[in-house]
Specification:
heterodimer; A: mainly beta; 6-stranded mixed β-sheet; 0% helix; B: mainly beta; 4-stranded antiparallel β-sheet; 11 strands
Chain lengths: 113, 112
Amino acid sequence: SQKIEQNSEALNIQEGKTATLTCNYTNYSPAYLQWYRQDPGRGPVFLLLIRENEKEKRKERLKVTFDTTLKQSLFHITASQPADSATYLCALEGAYNFNKFYFGSGTKLNVKP
Amino acid sequence: DGGITQSPKYLFRKEGQNVTLSCEQNLNHDAMYWYRQDPGQGLRLIYYSQIVNDFQKGDIAEGYSVSREKKESFPLTVTSAQKNPTAFYLCASGTSRPDTQYFGPGTRLTVL
């Protein structure tokens, strides 16, 4: 069965540094990979989507890479701020299984001032 | 004001009772989803619907039922057959490919 792994340990970094979060997957060939932000007690918020034929995507301070050979996506937040503290989830959607998404358990990011 | 609404935010029920969670969207999205989230775990798909009057089971559909009579609405019923119903329930709606999901604020269900 499909498996999506995100680091369950919280990532603690200092304000201004770059945060890098990892999403690894097995037994799956996603057409799209997405990253979401989730604050405690709230629904996830969509951040970025990257297609299987794209290597990198940027949006303001966010950058996502997608390596289908390594079956891995990296999510970077540059010049991190305390307001970036949240849990970040990756989600995969298959090429032939439209509208069916698989989510990782998320990595909690703590940015300290 | 566009978006997805879920009600209520907190819900308490006695064991053995069925309960229905509401989800409404005014984003004109065709696809709608229900997820369950347990502490320290990712979202698990319960049911999804790509069009009115049609829906498919997700990975953990047992003990749940849904209906999609209107494009805007996708209610979820948690039946007494669901063994561990206490959880945070999230509804989402989505655009067509590439698919992006927009989530509601969630309903926290506690079964006493």
